[in-house]
Each structure stands twice: as structure tokens, then as C-alpha cells.
Recover the amino acids of this structure.
């Protein structure tokens, strides 16, 4: 249960991080909060000759608000984001953060690290996907933005190129009349969700003008439920949420593992979606 | 490859300097290099919470931190929770409420509970249950631990 040997690099600027990744290529891995990476290394599921520790790059630990979005630097700790006033303007992000592990984990774990790690059962990739966040990637060629819809390729696989780091994520701010819900089913508080749903709605009276539904734990990436969103927008605020849940769950092909069977995950999915939407609609009406 | 790196830490108020491999986790450095064996290691991959310490005042799993990441940080282990050699309110409550049996998980429980109560002066019972959910105990069934958290919260509140 000890990680294998590696060289530790602690650059202080983003361009130094990028230069180190260019120098060491596949032998290098970015270390942010380490709350996913270090267990993987301790279990010897992965070994890396070089770790590039980004904790001493001040530019990566900033949160800033623009009129329509909140930009969260890659190295912002989850617990700090939980307490941040700008993050509070992105309620889905604020609601999802406390679902991550335990407070001891969130004191170290980072927003960018979780999204770059791209575990299909974790919350922050789903928040990014649900809100159509933009992923800021910095590489040898400079900065580019990747839509969250194109970022998550498979379990632990993202659209980041070799030599790029996730430097920040821009989460869109939804307007007035919006509400959000995060619902999960897990055997114990803090465990990875067996199934989870993250939902957002914007209401104009009883009309649903905007909707997002994203599920976790049901595939190799977080899954956006476009058909269910369209059905909710068509049906309005008084739509049959059980039916919306069934529409969301219909195309899912979850896998079986030691924690839950595929059939169980599929079976509970409509109810989890209904609960998330119920919470979102309640908040939007209030 | 196995070059050692110098790491400077403040541990329980004392300035320390160690030469360790980059792969050395903080828990091992505290135990093996600094002799602070109060911090226990069980799962070594972030599940059980036995190794919880404070890093700059915030609770963290010391099995999920490389010592090199803690360069310059201030660490508090269970040995430093009650600096005067007595018992802290949390430790007293754990004794009063039978919050331990074998005691293996206790250092992590004490440190987590201390960190939580330092920042949450008026927790509900549900808050305490959630706060302690990141520490596994295989003996007590948790009821004594939660009773201890309640007592410690109430006494710390009354004395503040």
C-alpha cells in the first residue's frame, strides 16, 4: 500500500507546469489535491515516474466572477469553493460540492482535479456537463476552451491533449427563476453514488424555459439526458416527473459491479431523477 | 530516482526538518521519522480516516498527502490536540461516553471531531452524524462516538 517511487516537481507558474509535461510526456502526471491520484498510486493501479505538483502555482487557485459565469481555477480546494460567495451564484455547483467524499477529503480535493480525473460516479464532472461549462486547457500552444459536452470521453479519459493541463473551469450562471437539485443513492454517506442525478430548471410561470438533467454512476461518463430535458420543457412545471424520470432512464446502460447490479441502477434511476427535479422545481418556484 | 527531499514542517508547534523520499506519505513521516505513532494507519487509501491530522488547521487524511506536499505547513496530530498534557474537551467526552473500545480509530476520530467542532459551534445531531461519517470504527457501533460529539459540542459551546 505504498506508492512507487517518483520525482516530485513543484513549479510556481503555469508555463513551468506545461514545460515539465512537455519534457516528461507520458512519464508525468499532474498532482493537484491527490485525493483520487494518491489512492490509485497507493493501490499500484498506476505508477508515474514524475509528478508535477500544481499546488504552488498561485494563478491556479483563484476564483473570479464574470457577468455570466464563475471561473474556478484548477487548484481551488473543494472546501474553499463550498464557502465562496461567487460559487454560491452557481447553485448546482454549491449543492454538489458537499456530496463529495467527506469534509476531510474536500479540504484537500480540488475542483479541477476532480473534473480532470473524470470519474463517471463523481459529482463535479456532472455539474460541468449539466451546466455546459467550458473547460480551460493550457498547453504548449497556449489556452483553449473545451465544451464540457466534448470533454468526458470515458472513465478517467478526457479530451485534454498530452501536455495540456486543465487550468480552470467556467461555470455558467443561470438567471432568476432558476432552481437546482442534487440527489444520490449510496450505501453510506460519502461513498461514491450508485446512481445520482443533478437537475436544473428555469421557470417563467408554469413554463419551463430551460432544463438540464445529468446522471452519474450509470455509464462510463456522466450522462446528459437530453430527451428528458426536452420532455420537461414541453410538459412544463406540472409535468409528470415519474414519466420524465422514465424517459431519462430509458437509454441508460449502467454496468454491474460489487456495489450494485446494472438492473438495480436502472431501476432506481427514474426515482432519483424525479427527486432531483422535484427539488429543482421547488427551489425555482420559491 | 529515490533521491531524498528536505521537507520542513511545524508539527504540534515544533519546527521539524526531515529528509524523505517524495513518495513518503505524511502519515509514515509522522510515525517513522518523527516518532508520533498516535496517528494510526489502517486502509492507507483514504477510506477509514484513522490517519486524520490537521494541516494548517484543516482535517485531512495523512495517508493521502505526500510529505513533500506539506512543505512549510503546520501539522497537528492527536498528540498535539491537548497541548498541556491533559485531555481536551473532545478527549474527555470520548472517555465519558465510551466513544472507544479497541482504540485504533480513536486518534482519527478525535482529530476529525476537534476540527469539525472548532468551525461548527452549534451542530445538530444530524450534522454530527454527517461530520463523523468519514471515520470508520469497527467496535463501537458509533453511538458512543456520537454521544461524545454531542457532549463535546455542548461543553465547548458552554465554555466559549
Amino acid at each position: 500500500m505504498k506508492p512507487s517511487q517518483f520525482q516530485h516537481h513543484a513549479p510556481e507558474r503555469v508555463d513551468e507546469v506545461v514545460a515539465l509535461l512537455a519534457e516528461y510526456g507520458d512519464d508525468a502526471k499532474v498532482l493537484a489535491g491527490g485525493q483520487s491520484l494518491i489512492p490509485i498510486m497507493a493501490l499500484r493501479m498506476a505508477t508515474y515516474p514524475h509528478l508535477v505538483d500544481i499546488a504552488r502555482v498561485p494563478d491556479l487557485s483563484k476564483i473570479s466572477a464574470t457577468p455570466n459565469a464563475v471561473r474556478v481555477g484548477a487548484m481551488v480546494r473543494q472546501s474553499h469553493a463550498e464557502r465562496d460567495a461567487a460559487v454560491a451564484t452557481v447553485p448546482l455547483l454549491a449543492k454538489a460540492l458537499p456530496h463529495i467524499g467527506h469534509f476531510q477529503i474536500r479540504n484537500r480535493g480540488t475542483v479541477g482535479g476532480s473534473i480532470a480525473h473524470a470519474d463517471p460516479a463523481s459529482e463535479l464532472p456532472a455539474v460541468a456537463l449539466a451546466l455546459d461549462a467550458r473547460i480551460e486547457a493550457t498547453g504548449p500552444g497556449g489556452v483553449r476552451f473545451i465544451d464540457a459536452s466534448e470533454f468526458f470521453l470515458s472513465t478517467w479519459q478526457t479530451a485534454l491533449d498530452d501536455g495540456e493541463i486543465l487550468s480552470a473551469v467556467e461555470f455558467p450562471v443561470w438567471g432568476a427563476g432558476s432552481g437546482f437539485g442534487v440527489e444520490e443513492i449510496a450505501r453510506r454517506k460519502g461513498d461514491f453514488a450508485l446512481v445520482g442525478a443533478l437537475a436544473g430548471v428555469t421557470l417563467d410561470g408554469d413554463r419551463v424555459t430551460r432544463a438540464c438533467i445529468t446522471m452519474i454512476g450509470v455509464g462510463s461518463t456522466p450522462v446528459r439526458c437530453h430527451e428528458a430535458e426536452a420532455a420537461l420543457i414541453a410538459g412544463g412545471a406540472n409535468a409528470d416527473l415519474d414519466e420524465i424520470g422514465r424517459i431519462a432512464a430509458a437509454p441508460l446502460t449502467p454496468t454491474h459491479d460489487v456495489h450494485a447490479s446494472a438492473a438495480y441502477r436502472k431501476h432506481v434511476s427514474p426515482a432519483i431523477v424525479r427527486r432531483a427535479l422535484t427539488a429543482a422545481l421547488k427551489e425555482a418556484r420559491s | 530516482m529515490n533521491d531524498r527531499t528536505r521537507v520542513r514542517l511545524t508539527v504540534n508547534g515544533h519546527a521539524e526538518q526531515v529528509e524523505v523520499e517524495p513518495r513518503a506519505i505524511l502519515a509514515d513521516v509522522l510515525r517513522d521519522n518523527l516518532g508520533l505513532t498516535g496517528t494510526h494507519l489502517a486502509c492507507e487509501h483514504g477510506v477509514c480516516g484513522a490517519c486524520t491530522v490537521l494541516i494548517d488547521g484543516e482535517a485531512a487524511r495523512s495517508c493521502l498527502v505526500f510529505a513533500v506536499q506539506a512543505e512549510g505547513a503546520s501539522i497537528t496530530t492527536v498528540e498535539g490536540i491537548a497541548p498541556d498534557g491533559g485531555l481536551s474537551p473532545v478527549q474527555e467526552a470520548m472517555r465519558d461516553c465510551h466513544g472507544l473500545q479497541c482504540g485504533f480509530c480513536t486518534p482519527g476520530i478525535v482529530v476529525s471531531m476537534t476540527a469539525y467542532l472548532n468551525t461548527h459551534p452549534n451542530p445538530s445531531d444530524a450534522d454530527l452524524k454527517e461530520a463523523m461519517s468519514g471515520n470508520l470504527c469497527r467496535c463501537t457501533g458509533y453511538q458512543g462516538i456520537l454521544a461524545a460529539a454531542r457532549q463535546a459540542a455542548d461543553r465547548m459551546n458552554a465554555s466559549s
In short: The longest helix of chain B spans residues 143-158.
